[in-house]
Amino acid sequence: MKCADIRAILLADFVDDELPAHKKAPVDSHLSACPSCREFLSAVRAVDAELAVSAVPVLPPPEVWENIRQQIEARPLSIGEKVTAWWEDVVWGSRPTFVYGSFASALIVLLVVAVPLVARGPQAGIMSDKEVLSIAYVDEGALVFSLANVGNGTSVENLL
Amino acid sequence: MKDIDDDVIRRALGHDTAAFEMIYRHYAGMVYRVAIRVTRSAEDAQEVTQQVFLSAHRHLGSFAGRSSLRTWLYRITMNCSLNAIKGRRQHEVPWEEGFDPQDPRHDQRENIEKESRLDEISRLLGHLNSDQRACLVLRAQEGLSYEQIARALNINLNTVRSRLKRARQTLISVNEEKRGGL
Lengths: 160, 182
Ligand SMILES: [Zn+2]
Known about the structure:
Radius of gyration of chain A: 26 Å
Oligomer: heterodimer
Helix content of chain A: 55-70%
CATH architecture of the largest domain in chain B: Orthogonal Bundle
Number of domains of chain B: 2
Largest sheet of chain B: none
Largest sheet of chain A: none
Shape of chain A: elongated
Strand content of chain B: under 5%
Strand content of chain A: under 5%
CATH class of the largest domain in chain B: Mainly Alpha
Structural class of chain A: mainly alpha
Radius of gyration of chain B: 18 Å
Number of domains of chain A: 3
Distance between the termini of chain A: 49 Å
Number of strands of chain B: 0
Structural class of chain B: mainly alpha
Bound molecules: zinc ion
Number of helices of chain B: 9
CATH topology of the largest domain in chain B: Rna Polymerase Sigma Factor, Chain: A
């Protein structure tokens, strides 16, 4: 392999330990014979070393938690959260472990059944469209919360 | 870093503020230090940290163990941080345009930097575009695998690889210029 090909590997997979053993061997043998690629490798490692320094834990100032606490305590629960809180108390309260999979499916079923019935009530706590979009990007479990908005004018067919 | 106990997540789902505070104490440092590197501003990073935990609190139910809580928080953090940058982009000179001391916007950039009191690492990261910066921070600072980075940024593995290559190549050149200038 040419130096340029070796360097392309050094820049990512090699330094990140993402290279399978059979692909690593030829790079290692090139490195042992090529001082200039060895120098390039130390330059790559130097870049990462500079950034690793900043992994030292830094905490946000205390007022950040204070703001969060005030906002979560002041915010009325959404219907989805009320269902969740109720579900937590009634069903899982005494269970030693939290079975996510069955919990999620049960929550979807509950929301499908319960939300259209209750959603015509007060709108407090229901997400804005912007928030739904941002969460859909954030989490593949967005379906659960997209369903929570069914009563808010979106049809299930559109979401599925 | 160890993920927090399922029991704490379960209690937070049941609207126990003390349990949610435990989640905050466990992950706030990680969220903040990633946000500070990606946004390159302590002020934005505090705002992002607040958004991340408010969003996590509201949507904890949708997390439902599909990934680790840590991975999910990385994902929300990246989403909020990149949005914060987009939101202020009209006031910022993009670094990828290259640096021209004759450019009248040069002064503006200097002021922004002074205001946000950027340290040396932030300055270095400022040579990258936000997508490259996000990848490199998750890899070099946070030690995530390519698979985890791909999930946190919702991109494919080859994109992770090519952004890391371009990011490191750029920073190697910056370091070389710095050495040449001494
Ligand atoms: Zn070589």
